[in-house]
Amino acid sequence: MNFMQVPTVTVESLPADGLLLDVRESEEWAAGRAEGALHIPMGEVVQRLGEITERADSGRVHVICKVGGRSAQVTAYLVQQGVDAVNVDGGMLAWADAGRAMQGDHEQPFVL
């Protein structure tokens, strides 16, 4: 599966109550993240697939990283596993540009 075939959604079309899976590294997560997102770094997705499928029972998984490359790879993997997953186009940079709320371990959250 190449990235052109990965199902994709825009930040603007994300449902407020949708499951957001953030696959960035821990330092990126600490800098700034979407409230309520599930954090599983890309390198841990295969071993933690059970956590994702358990949470995915409630619907679609929206996968996000900084720009969209890593999340596209994870989305492709999840789709191959039978998970209803979509890549968030533009990643956390698009999230921040859209003015969506972020939290972080610093006073002013930012995308790293």
Kindly state the number of beta strands.
5
Proportion in β-strands? 5-15%
The biggest sheet amounts to: 5 strands, parallel
Indicate the low-confidence ranges by residue numbers: none
What is the terminal separation in angstroms? Answer: 28 Å
Estimated radius of gyration: 13 Å
What features would you describe in this structure?
There is one protein chain. The mean pLDDT is 93. It contains 4 helices and 5 strands. It has 112 residues and is of the alpha/beta class. Strand 2, helix 1 (26-31) and strand 3 (38-39) form a beta-alpha-beta unit. A 5-stranded parallel β-sheet has the order 1-5-4-2-3.
Task: Describe the structure using short key phrases.
5 strands, 112 residues, alpha/beta, 29% helix, 4 helices, single chain, globular
Short description:
This protein is of the alpha/beta class and 112 residues long. It is 29% helix and 14% strand.
List the helices and strands and how they pair.
Layout lengths: L7 E2 L9 E4 L3 H6 L6 E2 L9 H8 L4 E4 L4 H12 L4 E4 L2 H7 L15
